[in-house]
Write a structure and sequence with these properties.
Layout: E1 2-5, E2 7-10, E3 13-20, H1 36-65, H2 67-80, H3 83-96, H4 100-116, H5 121-142, E4 155-159, H6 164-169, E5 175-180, H7 188-196, E6 200-202, E7 216-220, E8 225-228, H8 232-253, E9 269-274, H9 280-285, E10 291-295, H10 297-301, H11 309-322, E11 327-331, H12 359-364, H13 366-379, E12 384-389, H14 395-415, E13 424-429, H15 432-436, H16 438-442, E14 447-450, H17 452-460, H18 478-494, E15 497-500, H19 511-517, E16 521-524, H20 529-537
């Protein structure tokens, strides 16, 4: 038996084979081809494989997300065989005598640049499609495993840690749980695990070794304990937890369809955090009242170039329509800091958490902001969309955001494009600065949503991504809770609602404190909805106290 101890970041017990995430070596050789004819055959084989993959993806997308999403993959399959694109590859092979990988890379660069230079906006948008198709053909030429999981069976996925862009590529149907050497409770791996409702452990360090690949492991996402081939005593402990977990899941099923209200009638909105349109299924299966945070930046992280207005519109529209009139709060682009996107070409910063990120990028790049706002307002015609701006620290930023919204609405009016004029506008409270001017900010917006991960980071001067700060990163710190109370008081004074969309919202120990503070909404990972509802329905709001705010 091999025992490892890390930090549990997503509750649950599970067992399965370890599979280490495979990062591709994408370096392409400049060596000349031994045989141009053989390289042509290799390109043809890679094209055939790409078409099969895209056809399968289109079928899956049609079942899960509808025809509009499926059309994207079908379009990519057509591009694989496009005569001009293929000719571009073959010309590079014959004229340069290079290997197939280099020829495909050259064709992708030249063909996408040609499309991007056209006057037609539709053709410009297809440049990003060519880049995606090129990457797929290259992956098939180089034997790169799509999504990083080299297994046909579900696995416990292991890694040093996973970047946001890597989590997007994962085939979630193959993942039973996560174990990582580094990371923290706020890492993207941890957030993904909680959204999926599967166990995860981070911070296992060098005890998690690549040579364990393929071996059977049990993990406990609450205690952070992992055991490879456990002895009978340890196995019995894990099995007892598995049995208890099954009983609790059956009990939680009885919470579905129940109202989110305390014993003395205090209502609280229990919403969900999601990162992609595919996560809507988890919201629905866990009976979430709405979506309190749709992290729109994952649309940018998943793309190889700026996502078009149409691509964003389709994503937002699908989510809004799928939620059947329930509120969907969509956060505008929030990259920078730990979420880097290559094509934005952001300058390297010594401390990116304090640099150009989130709303600062949008206000500095008005065309990028305008494109997203147009897509958001267009999607508002298909559901109850609310727009939320992240990383706000001052009133002037809010006024600039509202001015950008007014311009977009005027454009849509002129073009005769439908949208909801009463679309709610809110902001995230994530810094001490926004807490201190909350009364002024509340006069400008329809709601507040507190991002407790960043608020804790900036209030306590603790890096939220660091795994070795331990007790110093304390979301229960009285300073953090007092900041929540100050913000809630300012919101209610202005007559607006206030929610929490950070991980702290799912903390059952703090639910009664949130009720005492006056929090109106909690937005949590889908798997946290039913336990939160059960706790809420057994609470008495009028007896809740603010004692946790005391030192």
């Amino acid at each position: 038996m091999i025992l490892m101890q890390g930090k549990g970041v997503s509750k649950g017990v599970i067992s399965g084979p370890i599979c280490f995430f495979q990062r591709p070596d994408t370096k392409i050789s400049d060596a000349p081809a031994a045989s141009v004819e053989e390289e042509k055959v290799r390109i043809g084989e890679a094209q055939e494989k790409s078409i099969i993959q895209l056809t399968n993806l289109a079928e899956k997308a049609r079942e899960e997300a509808g025809d509009e999403t499926a059309i994207l993959f079908e379009t990519h399959a057509m591009f694989v065989e496009d005569d001009d694109y293929v000719e571009c590859m073959l010309t590079a092979l014959e004229e340069r005598g290079c290997i197939a990988e280099r020829a495909v890379e050259i064709a992708g660069e030249e063909f996408s640049a040609m499309l991007a230079a056209m006057d037609d906006p539709y053709m410009q948008a297809r440049a990003a499609d060519i880049k995606d198709v090129t990457r797929r053909i290259l992956n098939n030429l180089m034997g790169i495993t799509e999504g990083g999981i080299n297994s046909e069976l579900p696995v416990i996925l292991a890694a040093d840690d996973l970047a946001p862009s890597e989590t997007l590529q994962l085939d979630k149907s193959k993942i039973l749980g996560f174990i990582t050497q580094g990371g923290s409770g706020n890492s993207h791996t941890a957030i993904l695990a909680r959204t999926m409702g599967i166990p995860a452990i981070c911070g296992l360090g060098e005890a998690l070794r690549p040579e364990y690949n393929g071996r059977e492991i049990y993990i406990d996402g609450e205690t952070g304990q992992a055991a490879i081939e456990p002895d009978d005593l340890t196995l019995g402990t894990f099995q007892a937890k598995l049995d208890s977990q099954q009983e609790m899941q059956e009990l939680m099923e009885t919470m579905k369809g129940q109202p989110d209200v305390t014993l003395d009638g205090r209502e609280m909105m229990v919403y969900c955090n999601i990162g992609s349109p595919e996560d809507v299924h988890a919201v629905q299966s866990n009976d979430g009242q709405g979506i309190g945070l749709f992290r729109s930046e994952f649309l940018y992280l998943a793309a190889s170039d700026y996502p078009s207005e149409e691509d964003q519109f389709q994503a937002y529209k699908n989510v809004a329509a799928s939620m059947g009139g329930k509120r969907v709060v969509i956060r505008t682009l929030d990259i920078g800091a730990d979420k880097q996107v290559d094509y934005f070409e952001l300058q390297k910063e010594e401390n990116p958490a304090l640099g150009v990120r989130a709303i600062r990028i949008c206000l500095n790049r008005p065309e990028v902001f305008r494109t997203q706002l147009r897509a958001l307002y267009r999607a508002s015609a298909y559901g109850k969309v609310a727009i939320m701006f992240p990383m706000i620290t001052s009133v002037w930023e809010v006024k600039e955001c509202k001015r950008a919204c007014q311009k977009v609405m005027a454009e849509l009016d002129k073009e005769g494009i439908p949208y909801r004029q009463d679309t709610e506008i809110g902001i995230m409270i994530e810094t001490p600065a926004s807490v201190l001017v909350a009364e002024e900010l509340a006069k400008e917006v329809d709601f507040f949503s507190v991002g407790t991960n960043d608020l804790t980071q900036y209030t306590l001067a603790c890096d939220r991504q660091a795994n070795d700060l331990g007790k110093f990163f304390d979301p229960h710190h009285p300073a953090v809770l007092r900041a929540l109370k100050m913000t809630a008081d300012a919101a209610h004074k202005a007559g607006i609602w206030i929610g929490i969309c950070g991980e702290l919202g799912a903390d059952l120990e703090l639910l009664e404190t949130f009720l005492a503070i006056g929090i109106d909404e909690l937005s949590v990972s889908p798997s946290s909805v039913l336990p939160l509802r059960a706790k809420l329905r057994s609470s008495i709001a009028k007896t809740c106290t603010l004692e946790r705010l005391e030192c």
